[in-house]
Amino acid sequence: MDKIPTVYSRDFLIDYPTVDCECPDRVDRIYSHIKNIADFTEPELCDVSDLMLCHSERLINLVQKDPVIYRTACKSAGGAVKAAELALQGPSFALIRPPGHHAGHDFNGGFCFFNNMAIAIKSLIARGLIKNALIIDIDLHYGNGTHDIVRGDSNITFVNIDSASREDFFNDIGAALKDAQSFDMLCCSAGFDTYIRDWGGLLFTEDYRKAAHMLASSNPHFFTILEGGYYIPDLGINVHAYLKGILEACS
Ligand SMILES: [Zn+2]
């Protein structure tokens, strides 16, 4: 493999109403840095039946009140679904926004509207394409929305990485991956806000390569979706390093 199948749409450049830091420039910067090692695919919108696998009718109606947010959030969730479908063949990446891991069954927040990761996995399970999945969330922030949706679901295991040091970060990922091969799919909610110059102040560019290598080596049916990451000057090089780690694991 010399390029990573990557789901992306110019619709993610839409400046829908949200906080200033979760801006279109995030994905634009990543796109320009990874285009040499990414093979891009346009996602479809997910439909209401996908949303209903994870969210209450009340929450869906709430997001629908802003048609621009609703359409972009459905495109983002559709991007995660597409990345999960691609992972049936091999590793993939979804360069999407808005992020999703703070959206729960009946709440949202933290710049998230719908839970892209939970929707993708539940969609594949509902269609009988996989039976189970392991989600590892390496964003700086706790994936409270994902936890809320998948708790009690014996087919989906959720591990949130929350490490105080770089050493712990890799130890924690290693521990989370111990049984990764026993799952039909391995899924990563990747936030790059753990970066040394971002809010987390923890990881260096090279660390994302190493983390991705560990993940991609643990299960061939592996996909990653973008969650957070707000230090725009280095966001592209960090995602590029992450994708290089996947390519190296698969070579
Ligand atoms: Zn975050």
What does this structure look like?
There is one protein chain. 41% of the residues lie in helices and 13% in strands. The longest helix has 20 residues, at 67-86. The chain contains 9 helices and 7 strands, in the order βαβαααβαβαβαβαβα. The protein has 251 residues and is an alpha/beta fold. It is globular. The chain has a single domain (4-250), classed as Histone deacetylase domain (Arginase, Chain A, 3-Layer(aba) Sandwich), CATH 3.40.800. Helix 8 links the parallel strand 6 (185-190) and strand 7 (222-226). It has a 7-stranded parallel beta sheet. The mean pLDDT is 97. Helix 1 packs across helix 9 and helix 7 (166-176) runs parallel beside helix 8 (205-216). It binds zinc ion. Zinc ion binds at residues 139-141, 191, 193, 227-228.
